Amino acid sequence: MAVLMVFAATIWALGQTTLTNKDIEKMKGGSSGPRPSANQPGGDSALPPVETGGSSGSSASSGSGAMIVKKLLPYKEWDDEYAEYFQSHYNDSALELKPKMIVLHYSRTQDFNTLWWTYINGGTYESKPGHLSTHFVVDRDGTIYQLMPLERRARGTYGVNHVAISIDIIGKNENELLNNHKQMKVAFALVKWLARRYKLGSAAILAHSEVAQGKSLVPDYTDYADKKSPNKYPPGSEPRGPGKSYMFKLRYYLYEPR
């Protein structure tokens, strides 16, 4: 799955370039053939599996069983809100993301639409109105939704929003995630593609519950706004997993000896 996604993404990144059979075999074999760069022009146009379509929800299939749908949140409307948030919590009002980690969550919702409207409608967070967000959502049927550009900071993982790509997986608990094998394969392949793109090691692939442990586990954890609990999640917080079983499977998939 991961090889197919990288292969398709490479074809998209190359545009009109003519590929020879030799080029294709190199990419299938995972050699040092051409791959999309995190800094290349076009940015998210290199996302797997192929063309992502428009923000209205158009989609494209790679033929590999996975589908990605670009369904962007109205993040530009939240610029002022987000700049204030990042200044308050991270002492940095910049909205540009330079990823240093990937953080996974389960959504605690039954379906994608519920999560989508939760983000759109916003709510009261830390006594202020605001909007949460995530970069990707993996639905129960294996569809991948992209909600934020990868070069843009999202507000999905308290403590590391300034450095993290956030991924939500639709499910109410870890057991639902573990029992949905198609969804798991797609989520793992997405994480693997992102980890390769940004050259991230195993320590940079985290569950929300792991981030909650704060600086003792995640040195990049930062919170200038919370004077009572600046180095880890406040008591009573309920991070949205996934748990040890899911993360063990993911890490084995990503970094097992070849």
- Regarding quaternary structure, how should these chains be classified? single chain
Q: State the order of secondary-structure elements, H for helix, E for strand.
A: HHEEHEHEEEEEHHEHH
N/C terminus separation: 16 Å
Specify the number of helices. Answer: 8
Strand ordering within the main sheet: 1-2-7-6-8-3-9
Write down the overall geometry: globular
CATH topology of the largest domain: Lysozyme-like
CATH architecture of the largest domain: 3-Layer(aba) Sandwich
Helical content class: 25-40%
Could you tell me the number of beta strands? 9
Describe the protein.
With 258 residues, the chain is α/β, with parallel strands linked by helices. It folds into two domains: 1-50, no CATH class; 71-255, Peptidoglycan recognition protein-like (Lysozyme-like). The chain has a seven-stranded mixed sheet. The chain has helices spanning 2-14, 21-28, 79-90, 112-121, 174-178, 181-197, 208-211, 244-255; strands spanning 59-61, 67-70, 101-106, 123-125, 128-130, 136-138, 143-146, 164-169, 205-207. It is 31% helix and 14% strand.
